[in-house]
Predict the 3D structure of the following.
Amino acid sequence: MTDQNGIGVYLCSGCAIGQSIDVDALSGIAASEFKVPICKTHECLCGDEAVAMIAEDVASGGVEKPVIAACSPRVMTDRFQFDGAQVIRANMREQVVWCHPPGDEDTQMLANDQLRMAITRATKSNAPEPWKEGEFSDKILVVGGGYVGLSAALEASRAGTDVLLVERSDQLGGNVRRWSKVLPDSPPYGTPRDNPVPGLIAAVEGDARISVMTDAIVAQTSGQPGQFKVEITNGGSTSEEMVGAIVLATGWRPYDPNKLGHLGYGASPDVVTNVELEEMLAAGKVAKKNVAFIQCAGSRDPDHLPYCSSVCCGVSIKHALQLIEADPDVMAYVIFQELRTPGVAEDLYRAAQDAGVIFMKGDVKSVGADLTVVVDDALLGEEVPLQGLDMVVLATGMVPNSTNIDLPTRELGEDEEMPPLLRSDIDTTAPITVAGYMGEEPAAVEKREETMPEGGPLLNLKYHQGPHLPMLADGFPDSHFICFPYESRRTGIYPCGPLRRPMDMGEAGLDAAGAVLKAIQTIRLVRDGASVHPRSGDLSYPKIGLEPCTKCRRCTIECPFGAIDETDKDYPVVNPARCRRCGTCMGACPVRTISFDNYSIDMLTSMAKSCEIPDEFDEKPRVLILACENDAYPALDMAGLSRRNYSAFVRIIPVNCLGSVSALNVSDALSVGYDGIILMGCKSGDNYQCHFVKGSAMAQERAANIEETLASMMLEKERVEAMEVEISDAERVGQLIDDFVATIDEIGFNPFKGF
Amino acid sequence: MSKSYTYYPGCTSRSSSMHLEKSLRAIAPKLGMELNEIEDWNCCGTSVGHIAEGRLPNAALSARNLALAKDRGEDDVVTACAACFIHTHDANEQIREDEGFKADLNEALAEAGQAYDGSLLVRHVCEVMVKDVGVDAIKAQVTNPLTGLKVAGWTGCQTVRPFAATERGGMFDDFDDPKFMRDFIEACGAEAVEFANNTSCCGGSVAVISPQKSLQLMKTILDEAKEREADCVATPCPLCQQNLEMYQDLINKEFGTDFQIPVVFYSQLMAVAFGLNPLTDAALNQQMIPATKLVEMGTK
Amino acid sequence: MTAHLPETKRKYDLTFARWVSRNVHGGDKLNMCMQCGVCSGSCPLGEQMDYGPRRLFMMIRAGMKDEVMKSDTIWNCVACYRSEVRCPRGVPVTHILDSLSVVAVREGYAEAKNAETTRFAKAFWWSAKKFGLTDERLVTALYYFSGGIGEGIRKGMANQKIALRMIGKKRMHVGMPRKIKRRGELKKILAKAVEIENRNDAAAGEEVKS
């Protein structure tokens, strides 16, 4: 072993580590095997005294990479943080002494290997040099001048940020501008509220930080967060602006009622949509006495919009109240399947009941040309014809404006491939199990053929992966709405409001603020060359050595965030500020030419190889677990926390994302004698929980490909398994490991052991 | 210290639940309650009165009682009968809340030169015992603790509904799981068995009018009492006591059971626990199903 | 009595619901019913009713006047008030059912007139009006015979054993009925109350016609 300059090993004997394993033996390994010049043991490494000791070693310049062999890297991060040092952690507590018997030979061997892997990691890790080339802009571009866009612009201005607000129509205000009253989002919740949009327009127009362009669309967007270059066409002229981040507030349009002939639309002029009624009310000319509202018109219907637009119930109630207020003799019937008035909307529902609005639960069977509505009344248990109506209102839902519907849909050329917009990815047309869906658990649907989205792109991104914003499902350009609202799969571009998911104005206002905060955060981080979350603050970024590059394009295609473009000579080029540091490109590259300063395929393989592999006569198999740091690794910590003992034959390496694991890591590990390999990641598929959208899906795919490799090595396919766990799987993760080790026992040892 | 209450006994105090009246009269002095009857009181109308002639004539019955009670000059009217309580209280609250109703009733009362303004508070005697007397004071009077007696406390419905947990109902207990019967039983030194049917309905007047409809309801109550090995069921409600006691034979005939479970009033338990005569004071001699164990406890 | 329930022309014609709202005690709260069914689920005799309270209230909304008035729901209410205290919307279920039964009798629905409860109530009212008190023996006897001599004897025989045991325990009064002292006073009050009730009722009828 070479001299390990800059590495210092610090061993903690507290938290029962000292009682369970031989810490002195670890110290011996550091000194003899790795020739680490500084190795210190302390009974409470996170205490002030020990922390001061490490800080001093770092400050004196002797230690650049302190290796902390103590608790999990997920805890005490603030204690073990030293300026100018790269801290490497060896998890001796949660993943060694808390889940394996004390004083046991196998526990000690595991501890030894934990230290070996950490020191190896330190030797393979370089201090990252952040990328911060060129000029940065702090300005935020807000696209869409409706309620959400106006709110976002004002929020950004209040936070001290300059805003460019672009609206495609000739005036600000969006859909809401044409309305009379809106749903209440402040007390009294039982009374429709006056339209706030005129006030917002005035505030925006009087705000010195906000410049407004109407009749304008974004013709092209290139660059990356902090340095987006946007071309805006306004009438005939085109101008160019530099912005740091983009907030998308293009809102929604009503579902096309011409598709609702079965509910009478088109058969009579008195069958109108809720949006049409909204405009009639604003114009003040609704002289109808008997009005039926049909809820979920074209919503929660597999043949139309499969989802719930969440506001239509409230809106119909508001309409009924407005009609009754204007004329107390009005009879208003709301025909619903499930009336959804969550939270304070309950007050509005009560106000309507009090005002005498009749709520009928049931399916609408038919709407006649004479406006007779036949309802299969679930509360009465019989079919009821509602007669004598003079207006039927269809409560239609929201369609997100995730494209510019005014622009033509681009047709693919004869030999042109579908741009790698969504390919080999989640199924954007599959139902997702969230509240508001049509059934309990949506049945699996056949993945529909991908087509170019209807309409032109909103931002016309000059990204290799295409001009459109990727969709999550049902046309909503979200990326991970469960955990990370406002995020799209294009870093620095934040959709909010009903563009992101159906929502009312109260929620949309908050959404605008949330998206603006995300945008500001991004602008600040990329200035420092740091990653936005989930690896917030990571200063490294993927570097591609072009010499071995075969131009296979896997990195450009597989990047979940479209961060990698191509040069005119077809070489990949990374836009570091777009990158989220998942390493999917690194895992994809067949020639290992993509790596980070502090993270590489070589590092992972070296760590695996640094472990002692006993020969088969010792009857101690070894299983390598490459565990995603977001869900799988925490789940393993949780197992330790709950003292769930599992096999001590496993060796665990945390990875940025399972997407960063290469098939080469697997074959390398098998060739050095590991008996089995687990790729442990988060849930993939349409309800994915992967922080990087499709890392775990990529791992599943690669694991399937590895089967062929195994076959060529004459190895059993059971030796490699991709598993999906959740952070709460403390018990299950232990069981998965034990079952896997049992399988390996059955198959027998890796014949390459000791080869 | 004794407190004086205007008292409305109700019709059953003179007949079917005479034993409630007698035992209550026996324990009242010990608990410092002086019960002064409304002079020349009449029937409350019960749960069927309104059907005969309508809501107003029915309420007029209560209005006359309240007008007479008001003449006594005390603030509260106390009654021990669940039905009397509910109907008198209800009429009183309607008089307070509905000016038109109040005017109509006063127009009727004027025929007899009477008037009522709604200023009284109608209270159930159990509420008075919980809030004015207090369970500790009840416990303090116990000289003959009913140790070893297992009692199923059965509150029934109307004593706690719909007023018990309202401001005007004294906020004295819960609608669905009232505690006061358990407290009374335990204060007497007896064991209050778990009783899930605490507020189950016996069928009320429907049980009187068409027994077949409600036998199953009573059987459920008796089933649990038997399962819990209760020596007796104790209740505050006259109609509950009467229904559950007098229909046991019919239930046995109908369902092939062999229930012989005594059904007593809390006041009878207290009378025995206070060391009074079990037969005359506690009026246990008026049980159709003899409460033998309780009688024995009082005669040792 | 003047029948003055409004005619309903079609389903969900609100005239009946509005009439109930204005003329049935507690009916003004009926609007707030959200059809959750806590009432029907809480009812001890719910299974023996034509319709549970929830369904009955929806039928009122739907203008199903005759079905509502003929239903036995209103006669099977045991007045335990469980639904009333549990209703999340504060609908006074028991009060409304009580009041509906008054309306059904007044409107002359045969089902109401012949309901056992009605016959019992008539017997009871006779005693209350005549003596000022309920004489359980006389009320019960009168009730039994209100259904005809044959039924009276049958019911009387069935309950004779109970009656005799009650008498034996001095819990049923025999002999001359007990009376309050100032029966004349009570009689005058009740007569006036009936007069006012009819007056109010007629006024409500006028309102419907107009």
